[in-house]
Design goal:
It is built from 7 helices and 2 strands. It is mainly alpha-helical. The protein has a two-stranded antiparallel sheet with strand order 1-2. The radius of gyration is 23 Å and the shape is flat.
């Protein structure tokens, strides 16, 4: 990271650590609350559904507090976490992938995969439209044949697959 400090700047390392520690602590609290809603005790059939997640939630919160304490303790730790350009590169992959995950239940995994592969190949890879079309359609088609026909595993489908009769 030392060569990144002289570039265009970015968020400080300790601020990122504090933000991640708070986010993971909130996640742990949500796990604890959800576990308590389904029961964390011991029933006639054995442990209730929230028994193990409750303790994982406690472990997540405790780990987050340790990370938060360490980020405060290291007060001279003001190095740049990543430059804004590096963060842009990471977000250019994370944001489309998040849209892909959201789109799969609505349009199916195969159509969403076509769009994701085409987007990455064209936008990031700068490939020509012929290569983009061949691979973005070909890879999900091969996956469809392997999973649906040979393994008999049904993956999430959308309205296009339903319209085609699958």
């Amino acid at each position: 990271m030392s060569n990144a400090q002289g570039q265009s700047g970015g968020p400080a390392h300790d601020y990122v650590e504090i933000g991640v520690a708070i986010a993971t602590a909130l996640f742990g609290i949500i796990v604890i609350i959800g576990s308590m809603q389904v029961g964390i005790g011991w029933g006639l059939e054995g442990p209730k559904a929230g028994f193990l997640p409750f303790y994982f939630g406690l472990l997540i919160v405790a780990s987050s507090l340790i990370n938060l304490w360490n980020s405060y303790r290291e007060a001279d730790y003001k190095a740049v976490f990543a430059t804004w350009g590096q963060l842009y590169s990471v977000m250019s992959v994370v944001v489309p992938t998040a849209f892909y995950v959201v789109a799969v239940p609505y349009i199916g995994i195969y159509v969403a995969s076509i769009l994701l592969i085409a987007f990455f190949m064209r936008w990031i890879g700068k490939y020509g439209w012929g290569m983009v079309a061949a691979l973005s359609i070909g890879v999900p088609l091969v996956c469809f044949i392997v999973f649906e026909r040979y393994f008999l595993v049904s993956l999430p489908k959308g309205p296009i697959e339903e319209w085609l009769g699958f």
